[in-house]
From TrEMBL:
Alphabetical list of SUPFAM superfamilies matching this protein: FAD/NAD(P)-binding domain
Gene Ontology cellular component terms for the protein in this record: mitochondrion
Pfam families: FAD_binding_3
Record-given protein name: FAD/NAD(P)-binding domain-containing protein
Keyword Oxidoreductase: yes
Keyword 4Fe-4S on entry: no
MF terms (GO), sorted A to Z: FAD binding; oxidoreductase activity
Keywords: FAD, Flavoprotein, Oxidoreductase
Source species taxonomy: Eukaryota, Fungi, Dikarya, Ascomycota, Pezizomycotina
Amino acid sequence: MPKINHVVIVGAGPSGLLLAILLARNLSIKVTILDASDKIDSNPRAAHYAPSAVYDFTRAGIIDDVREQGFTPKGICWRLKDTTFLAGMGREPEQAEFAMVVLPLDRLGPLLVKHFESLPNTEILWGHKLVGVQQDADTATALVETTKGEKKEISGDYLIGADGASSGVRTALFGKEYPGETLKQQIVATNVYLPFDERHGYWDSNFICHPTDWYMAARITKDGLWRVTYGDSEDLTREELIKRQPKRYEEILPGNPKPGDYKLMSMSPYKLQQRCAPSFRVGRIVLVADAAHLCNPFGGLGLTGGFADVGSLYDCLHGIHIDELSPDILDKYSSVRKGIWRDMIDPMSRANFHRLWDPAAEKARDEFFKMCDKACEDPVWGKSMAQSVMAVRHDFEQYFKSKGGDGVGGFVDGGKA
Ligand SMILES: Cc1cc2nc3c(=O)[nH]c(=O)nc-3n(C[C@H](O)[C@H](O)[C@H](O)COP(=O)(O)OP(=O)(O)OC[C@H]3O[C@@H](n4cnc5c(N)ncnc54)[C@H](O)[C@@H]3O)c2cc1C
């Protein structure tokens, strides 16, 4: 007798939608998604999905469509402001089954919605804002206000907070404070048609190192749209940051382009945050992705970590559903996922960021560049480096009772733990 009938997911962002597809497609669980907005967020955000995410795209049955709309990037490198090459890796086409894929979120989102809505027992309730939560021994309930002013209660066996950085679910559980810090610098992310590859010989992903004029330029679509994300001062308001964009492009980009030299498609300033929720589980309510943890976007670890939460939580709910795991596995989910953020995502994302501008990071930068050289000289080792991000995943199926697990995150014989 299946244990889970209905899961309520708050947030139709990429993490909520991926979890929803996994549950509805593979386990035939009824899934309701609530979203405060009336449409998918179209701001320039994630575009690069690491091999760990591709693993879960494959399990969700969406990878063929993602690859068809997106592409596998060739080469990531670091340069000086005058475009001088410092180091790089991955110039050869990646042939691995789970090779990274690039597709901007505003294109991935509609693809995920299409897959989700094609499955039975699924619904997305747009204009439904979560304002509180309740739970008892058997159910978890979302307290919702709609854009029409109605108040509703929507209950399921589990309630998942996939509602992003300002998560209503996390706030309902732990209050307004999100432990961690806001970094000093601000960034402006822009999507632009400007052929860096043809004009300046840029690779698909380029990080430009400079004390003040650091930036990232990466091709993010097959038709030549580029993401340029640059830094600016912490004192500026959002409006000032937006107004300064033409000046900053002219100051920092090669060839000092003026507005007529490129076609700007979208832009958004962001603050950079490193934060982690006190726990990712309270009873029948579970947090994933930006609702649970944040990091700066350099190196693309934000949603990479978020999708890895989704993969782990899917394993847990699968195990609970077929009585292979106890609901107490969700405590292990919380401790394992928090540990991966603390030991891997937080330090790696900080190192990726400091490598761009911080003189104190010079020694670490030189060592990192030597590692890039080694990856080029020894492609087998280089490939293993590219796949090392798989460590962000944690397989909870290993704790299934039929596989020798004890159902709560250990092993019956104790040997593997
Ligand atoms: C410039 C930039 C570039 C990035 N690049 C990368 C990258 O290349 N690779 C990578 O891995 N990561 C990257 N990231 C990080 C990535 O974009 C985020 O981690 C990701 O978007 C978070 O997804 P999510 O599903 O957790 O939340 P979101 O995408 O924020 O979705 C949350 C959803 O919840 C809804 N919502 C919010 N509050 C409520 C509420 N109270 N009730 C109901 N609904 C609610 C919102 O409307 C929204 O639809 C980047 C981030 C930035 C800023």
